[in-house]
């Protein structure tokens, strides 16, 4: 396995396991530099979103890199706002294409489930997929209940579920469910995000010292060995390189289990997709009864 190793999605498209995340990156030179450093370090998978507001900078960095467009796997996402309304997806997608200065996207994702809107929005996603300008489509932040609802109507199965996933939130039953459904799992905020303090966890530090690696590297290796696509973010060149230097060591199954066990103390650092408005919960229950 190396930085170019890919996972085959359920439609045959190949995605590099290691990607570069840009959550919390702004539309500015810092982001342009970070994406440039990532590509220089060998990353060939860049993740952005309309909702991050940084697509222009991400696109500029990809263009400036001189690397062939076909060599870089680019993901962006549909915003969970009016862009989720019926018929709005193609326009939103084209806006992302324009900002990124690209004529196709490798992976286009619904950013958050929005009760009452997701099913119609997925129809728009399917249209985009059929147009050939998104090589794969998928979702983010879905749990089993959201998939049950989606499968009721969907013609194209999502290729990916991108979720908050790290040692304090390993979501093992959701991961097993996605695997059974042929939906690849991708971890956002794999290092615990901004204020997670995950990198200070003594259990992880012990494993890192044993391997002569950093805690960040141990966490990312834990993702890779479990078949999880992972997209660490950093705006520091040394960390960007460090997070790509994952291929000269391996975790034992006992170490993987030790890391898995951190989930006994679950901590979510981002928004919880299951804590929805009460009226949305009612809507979902009604939909499920209708299945
Ligand atoms: P920075 O951009 O200042 O390097 P996520 O879990 O969402 O990928 O976020 C990771 C967070 O941890 C970021 O805020 C990033 O901050 C920081 N980070 C990324 N890589 C490393 C690393 N190798 N060591 C320490 N901190 C890191």
What does this structure look like?
It is a single chain. It is built from eleven helices and ten strands. The protein is an alpha/beta fold. An eight-stranded parallel beta sheet has the order 3-4-5-6-7-8-9-10. A two-stranded antiparallel ribbon has the order 1-2. Strand 8 (160-164), helix 6 (172-181) and strand 9 (184-188) form a beta-alpha-beta unit. The N and C termini lie far apart (42 Å). 40% of the residues lie in helices and 14% in strands. Helix 2 packs across helix 3 and helix 7 (202-211) packs across helix 8. Residues 21, 23, 189-194, 199, 214, 216, 232-236, 239, 242-243 line the site of adenosine-2'-5'-diphosphate.
List the quaternary state of the chains.
single chain
Rounded Rg: 18 Å
- With helices defined by DSSP (H or I, 4 residues minimum), what is the helix count? 11
Structural class: alpha/beta
Strand order of the largest sheet: 3-4-5-6-7-8-9-10
> How much beta, percentage-wise?
5-15%
| Topology pattern, helix = H, strand = E | EEEHEHEHEHEHEHEHHEHHH
* Major sheet: 8 strands, parallel
Query: What is the averaged pLDDT score?
Result: 94
Shape: globular
Task: Flag low-confidence runs.
Answer: 277-291
Distance between the termini: 42 Å
How many extended strands?
Answer: 10
Bound molecules: adenosine-2'-5'-diphosphate
């Amino acid at each position: 396995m190396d930085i170019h190793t890919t996972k085959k999605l359920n439609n045959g498209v190949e995605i590099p396991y290691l990607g570069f995340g840009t959550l919390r990156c702004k539309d500015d030179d810092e982001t342009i530099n970070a994406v440039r450093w990532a590509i220089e370090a060998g990353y060939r998978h860049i993740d952005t979103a309309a909702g991050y507001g940084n697509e222009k900078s991400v696109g500029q960095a990809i263009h400036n890199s001189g690397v062939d467009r076909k060599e870089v796997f680019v993901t962006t996402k549909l915003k969970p706002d009016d862009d989720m309304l019926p018929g709005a997806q193609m326009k939103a997608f084209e806006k992302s294409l324009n900002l990124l200065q690209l004529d196709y996207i490798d992976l286009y994702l619904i950013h958050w489930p929005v009760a009452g809107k997701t099913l119609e929005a997925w129809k728009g996603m399917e249209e985009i997929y059929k147009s050939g300008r998104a090589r794969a489509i998928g979702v983010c932040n879905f749990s089993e209940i959201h998939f049950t609802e989606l499968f009721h109507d969907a013609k194209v199965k999502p290729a990916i579920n991108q979720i908050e996933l790290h040692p304090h939130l390993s979501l093992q039953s959701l991961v097993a469910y996605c695997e059974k459904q042929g939906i690849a799992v991708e971890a956002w905020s794999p290092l615990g995000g901004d204020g997670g303090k995950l990198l200070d966890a003594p259990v992880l530090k012990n494993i890192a010292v044993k391997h002569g690696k950093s805690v960040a590297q141990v966490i990312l290796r834990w993702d890779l060995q479990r078949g999880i696509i992972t997209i660490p973010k950093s705006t520091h060149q040394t960390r960007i390189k460090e997070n790509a230097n994952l291929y000269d060591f391996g975790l034992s199954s006992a170490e993987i289990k030790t890391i898995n066990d951190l989930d006994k103390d679950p901590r979510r650092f981002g928004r919880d997709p299951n804590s929805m408005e009460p009226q949305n919960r009612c809507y979902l229950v009604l939909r499920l009864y209708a299945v």
